Every structure is written in structure tokens, then in C-alpha cells.
Automatic annotation (TrEMBL):
Residues 22-82 form the HTH tetR-type domain. Pfam families: TetR_C_11, TetR_N. PANTHER family: HTH-TYPE TRANSCRIPTIONAL REGULATOR RUTR, TETR-FAMILY TRANSCRIPTIONAL REGULATOR. InterPro entries: Homeodomain-like_sf, HTH-type_TetR-like_transc_reg, HTH_TetR, Tet_transcr_reg_TetR-rel_C_sf, TetR_C. Keywords: DNA-binding, Transcription, Transcription regulation. This is TetR/AcrR family transcriptional regulator. It comes from Streptomyces cavernicola. SUPFAM superfamilies: Homeodomain-like (SSF46689), Tetracyclin repressor-like, C-terminal domain (SSF48498). Residues 45-64 bind DNA. Signal peptide: none annotated. It comes from the Bacteria.
């Protein structure tokens, strides 16, 4: 880029503002979450969001431009605001805390429908899908140290894939939430945490295959 060229403009919703702009962003994202929870992605109208947020429609269109851009910023904000990981010093208890957080989020009267709407939108909108993948990557990365510390303590085998262990906790909960319709209760969260911990201790998530057991001849 030459000295007289303007820098490329950031994508809508990617600049983190301060002051009044931050308050406007918070109000708009809160309103967008309400609309998604009530009517899904198809019902996400920027004019309606502006009205609910008490801001000018021009402001919303200028900052975000499209419903997909607004959802992307909403997911980024949700990732930033989500509860931090547990650090109990025991792998199973950490994974229990993770499972409890996922279950609580998906069964929340507002958050549950919001996530369902975003996931549905991600199946047909590339930008929403990218934002959803990024949200999940951030949340998995937040909990990875729990597994890495368990490896250091000797609770898990060396070369355990920490990301896969964290994903193994939430996967059965999302399956219940989206596909099976089975109850998403505390028992299911406990089972998910225990199963992931047991599989990890058995070496199921090692990044290299364990050597085959030697055959002992009589």
C-alpha cells in the first residue's frame, strides 16, 4: 500500500468501540439477541433491531450493514462475555464445570433459542457459519488449559489432544439439544464429563497411537 492510499476499512462489527459507541453496540447486540431468540435468523431485521435498541436505523446499517454481520459481532461478544474456565486442580471436576456451563447455556430460556437460531442460520449462510465456528474455537481454547494441566499432573497420558477432550464434553450435549430431543438434564451433563475424562485417561485422545501391546508367549 502506498503512502497516499487509505487503509482498508474493517469489516462491519469488528472494531471494538468505547464510550457512547460501546453503549450503542451493547444495546444493539442485546436487541439482536432478543430478536433471534423470538423469531430466528429469518426474523432478524436491522430496522427492528434499531427500534428495540433505541438507536437510529442509519447507525445500525452503517456499522453492521447486514444481519449476518450483526450475528457475527453478537457471537464475538458472547465469546468474550462467557464465563471463564474452572481451575479445580482435578480433571473430572473441571470437565464437570464445562459440561454444566454448556448445559446451562443451552437450556436457558433466552440463550437456548438464540443458539438454535444461529446454528440454523449457519447451515445456509457462510458468514454466520464462520462466526459460529470462531465462537466455538474461542470457547474450546478457553478450556484447553484444564486438560494440559491434567497432563502435567500425570492424570492423562502425554500427547493428549486437549481440544478433542474439551469437544468430547460438549458434543453429546449439543446432540441432545439439536438432534435427539433427549432431556438435557444434569445427569446428561455428568455423563458427558465422566465419559470424556474416562476416554482421555484411557488414551483415546492421544495425538499419536499408543504402541501395540506385546504378545507374551508361554
Amino acid at each position: 500500500m502506498t503512502s497516499d492510499e487509505a487503509p482498508p476499512a474493517p469489516e462491519p462489527g469488528t472494531v471494538r468501540p468505547g464510550g457512547r459507541t460501546a453503549r450503542v453496540r451493547a444495546a444493539v447486540l442485546d436487541a439482536a439477541g432478543d430478536v433471534l431468540a423470538e423469531g430466528g435468523f429469518a426474523g432478524l431485521d436491522l430496522g427492528d433491531v434499531a427500534r428495540r435498541a433505541g438507536v437510529g436505523k442509519t447507525t445500525v446499517y452503517r456499522r453492521w450493514g447486514t444481519p449476518a454481520a450483526l450475528v457475527a459481532d453478537l457471537l464475538a461478544d458472547m465469546a468474550e462475555q462467557s464465563s471463564p474456565r474452572a481451575d479445580t486442580g482435578v480433571l473430572l471436576d473441571d470437565l464437570r464445570a464445562n459440561a454444566h456451563l454448556v448445559r446451562t447455556t443451552l437450556t436457558d430460556p433466552r440463550q437456548g433459542p438464540l443458539f438454535r437460531a444461529v446454528i440454523a442460520a449457519a447451515t445456509c449462510d457462510e458468514r454466520t457459519a464462520h462466526a459460529l465456528h470462531r465462537f466455538y474455537e474461542i470457547r474450546v481454547a478457553e478450556w484447553v488449559p484444564c486438560v494440559e494441566l491434567a497432563v502435567q499432573r500425570g492424570e492423562l497420558p502425554p500427547e493428549t489432544d486437549a481440544q478433542e477432550v474439551v469437544r468430547a464434553v460438549s458434543a453429546p450435549l449439543y446432540h441432545r439439544f439439536l438432534l435427539s430431543g433427549a432431556p438435557l438434564d444434569e445427569e446428561s451433563a455428568e455423563r458427558a464429563a465422566r465419559a470424556a475424562a474416562a476416554a482421555a485417561r484411557a488414551g483415546a485422545y492421544r495425538t499419536t497411537a499408543a504402541p501395540p501391546c506385546a504378545i507374551i508367549e508361554a
